[in-house]
Amino acid sequence: MSTRDERVTNLINDAKRLRYSRRQILRNGSALGLSAAGLQMVLRSSGHTLAAPRQTRYQTGGKLNILAGSYFVPEAQDFFVKQVQDWGSQNGVEVTADFVNWPDIQAKVSAAVESGAGPDIVEMREGWQYLYYEQMTDLNDLAMQVGDAAGGYYDWVTNTASVDGNFYSIPVGTSSAAFAYRISYFEQAGITDAANNFPKTWEDLFAVGKTLKGMGKPLGQALGHSTGDPASFAYPYMWSYGAMELEEDGKTVAFNKDTFVDGMNTFIQAWKDAYDETGLSWDDSANNRAFLSDQISATLNGSSVYLAAQSAKAGASTTDYKVVVDPADITHAGYPEGPSGRFNQLSSWSYAVMKYSGNQDSAKALLQYWTGADQMKAWLEAQKGYIIPPAKSLASDPVYTSDPKLAPYLDVINYGRNKGYAGPLNQKAAQVGSQYIVVDTFAKAIQNNDAKGAIEEGAKLLERIYGR
Amino acid sequence: MAMVGSNTFGRRVVRLHIPLALYAIFLHFPFAWRVIVSLKPDQDLLRTNLNPFVLRDVTISHYTYLFKETDFLRWTWNTAVVTLAATVLSLFCSVLIGYALGRLRFRGGTIMGLAIFLAYLVPPTLLFIPLSQVIAKFGLYNRYWALIFTYPTFLIPFAGWLLMGYFRTIARDLEDAAMVDGATRLQAMRQIVLPLALPGVLSAGIFCFTLGWNEFLYALVFMGTGNMKTIPVGVVSDLIRADVYFWGSLMAAGILGSVPVAVAYSFFVDHYISGLTSGATKG
Amino acid sequence: MAISTTPITRKTAIEVTRPRRSLSAFLQRDNVLAYLFMLPGAIFLILFMAYPFVLGIWLSLTDKLVGFSDYKYVGLANYRWFWSDSIFRQTVINTFIYGFVTVPFKLFLGLGLALLLNERFHFSRAWRAGLLLPWIVPTAISSLAWLMLFDGVLSPISWVLRDWGLVDHNINFLGDSWNARASLCLANIWRGIPFFAISILAGLQAVPNDLHEAAALDGAGSWQRFRSVTLPVIRNIMLITTLFSIIWTFSDFQLIYVLTKGGPANMTHVFGTYSYQSMAVGDIAGAATISLYMFPILAVFAIILLRYVRKED
């Protein structure tokens, strides 16, 4: 990878200095043995716009099985199945899709990858592409095609969905997190104009939470082993109190900081004062249920609680439990800040074609179709804004701008950091995420009422992985 | 402990009926709960202020959901196929093993017996990923054979051990007499010993059936996609969707999924008990 | 045919009825027949258990992660690492708690139930079948029922206790580590009682009634009768059942996986679930190591079991 970087950098310098034409770049570049991706990087960096690449045509037929996490926007899941099955019937492919609960996805992916048999197309989350890329077909060309046609991927997408800049899977955006809260309860707790005045710092939030818990409507936070909400809280809180996984040097573990110990102690106290204490066993679904059945007044989550409340109000309830919250009483706010700043956590989901698949061409064809601008746009609309888009032109879709209440979700791209910070979201960071090391530190601190001990242990576990 | 001595009605109630009732309540209330939930309409399920044991309304929508919106019937079929086939296969092997260890004297008998029993201890959570490589190599992934061939690994050791004990209890003279009369060992086995061992075989068979029907991990990993799910896998994966637990249907599925096994037991419980007696105590 | 005064041995009988040097004679030999009989089972066990098991041992000595083909031999490094891992230590403690707390309850409650079922009363057969249900019903399914019974919001147990004024808020069954352990034990005991009951019942049915009557006539009270007549007979099966139960409880997976997945914060892991979790995140070598730690413990119990059973032979 480094050799390629050198050649690319050298060529970029030459191209700029000597004002190479597009043709010269391409000729010199291929003489140097650069891949198409490398060539694209040179062209882009030296100011040449890309000619629209011709779409590759793939052969189709046979069967395809897709593995993805179950959707928190149920209508979108049905929509996705329809999309892929329509494509399948038009192209002579039998497409099936399996949706697995979030805590269980990785086990299935691991088993499939290790045994060399399983679904043809697999959804990769939270840096998993770094864990499994040896078994994933290189999809860089397809990804670049798709991304460029949609205005280009955001940097945060390239940083969190590729493997060192090369795509082995096609990014499809991600769910982001913000605080969903009940306007009426916050007003009762003493916040004037609660719809526009969410607490600005974590400590402010905990103070309001204390009042709210006294009213019987505490804050809620999931801290169990599930891939979404727990990490969406733990990492940003850690960052806002001055700790990180790695220092800027990319080697030293920066977890055990005094500021963080203080912050953790604050949180332990807040857990007792302001939070629903059953949250230690919550996965990504429990806080949704608690919020929508009016037990908690605020929780950080994707926009699915708001969307579910809207569906329930419109009579098209898709939940198996009674939604008793009026969506008019729900609004969202970005994260509060801590002494070291205001952060959110941003990762990326992508879809990969597995090398063991006997039907890779069909799989690529399906992904090419589905991630193409038209279909992706429709899918994002079906998600009602729950998924933030991976490419720039998709962000101007009305689904993101029509309801101001959903603005905080797209806003995350402005203050979101990747897991593994200050290092990249690479294999080790992905492992740390998979093993819930950061999340468990919080849970352990609460359980044992010992911030320092939990953080020290967390640091040890981080060192074991980063030091490998 | 047979009750001899004073056996008045009063004493019986106190010493027999009341304790039995207590046990029954403890052992059965989860099932009663399941029945209640499976019949309770969705709206009532989350009304936590009301008495949860009272059914204000009854609905069969959870059951119909199971049959119309999920692959429940297919799961049942899958589970039945896999369990029955694995049971037959395992019984075949176990009867032979049980006979060999229980009635034939041969070198290395004790060691083989020990090895087979130790094989039983190897936990599936250790095996499942190396095993998935084996499965993939043989091209069995997501096919019935994946489970039919892997279930015997935990069915054979236990059933074999049970049958070994059982075979030991059958008097040797019967076989010897038959062989003196001119039968081969195999004939003696087939015509004399096996019929006598039938209760034990039945008992081992029921045990295998239960364990197979019950199995979760291998079914999840080796065969858990599309329409190849078994009941435990299907229930856990398809009736919990992101943040929604379809409790009503979950409980309904649980009830329906237990029926075949419960029925089998009710017919064979006496055999099961006597099989256990001989097999286990004299094993 | 002359009447022989020497006892006819099996061997002689065969000699009389079959020529010695045929294939079937060869196959009739105990040695050969035994191994032949064991062959089908052995094939399965070797292919689908022994080989993966050895592979598992090998993996535990490497640093392999799922998805990567380059990995190296690291000797006992994994074992050493887990030895000092606090989660692993908690796992060991949990497993022992889980095993040694539940088994006495299962034993005594199962014994009590067996004694009751041994009586003659109406529909005893139906009762016996019915009370077996917790044991028969697939664990994955009954665990889901317990999941709802232990739910922080929907639990009817909480509701009843609140209704009776014994608690003032819903019980956090699964979110607090000690509560979670207790809940798991409760579900495990519930599931295990029928197994003990039926096994001991089988033993009880072997106790002849005359012994009881004789003892009663001699003036022995029920407790004495139990101790001197019943107990000696069922002691054997009680011990065997107990040992089996310990082995199964130690290697339990489904119940804990469905109810807590080892949470909260890895506080209720047992070997099976911790190993599975490690596998799920790709740490195969670690998962194999954890499972292999369990194996010697189980083997010890198994050997005790076998030794005891052999003694009775």
Tell me about this structure.
The complex is a heterotrimer of chains A (468), B (283) and C (313). In chain A, the strands form three sheets. Chain A has a six-stranded mixed beta sheet with strand order 2-1-3-10-4-11. A four-stranded mixed beta sheet of chain A has the order 6-7-5-8. In chain A, strands 9-12 form a two-stranded parallel sheet. In chain A, helix 4 runs antiparallel to helix 16, helix 13 crosses helix 14 and helix 20 (437-448) packs antiparallel against helix 21 (451-466). In chain A, strand 1, helix 4 (74-91) and strand 2 (94-100) form a beta-alpha-beta unit. Chain A has 468 residues and is α/β, with parallel strands linked by helices. The mean pLDDT of chain A is 86. Chain A is globular, with a radius of gyration of 23 Å. Chain A folds into three domains: 2-45; 63-174 and 347-402, D-Maltodextrin-Binding Protein, domain 2; 178-345 and 417-466, D-Maltodextrin-Binding Protein, domain 2, CATH 3.40.190.10. Helices cover 48% and strands 11% of the residues of chain A. Chain B is mainly α and 283 residues long. Chain B folds into two domains: 9-59, no CATH class; 63-282, MetI-like (MetI-like fold), CATH 1.10.3720.10. Chain B has helices at 9-39, 42-45, 61-69, 72-103, 109-119, 124-137, 144-150, 152-168, 172-180, 185-214, 217-223, 231-238, 247-282, and strands at residues 240-241, 244-245. In chain B, strands 1-2 form a two-stranded antiparallel ribbon. Chain C has 313 residues and is an all-alpha fold. Chain C has helices at residues 10-17, 23-28, 30-60, 77-83, 86-117, 124-131, 133-136, 139-149, 156-163, 177-204, 209-217, 222-250, 254-259, 271-280, 284-311. Chain C is flat. Mean pLDDT of chain C is 81; it is low at 1-6 and 8-16. The interface between B and C is large, with 104 and 114 residues.
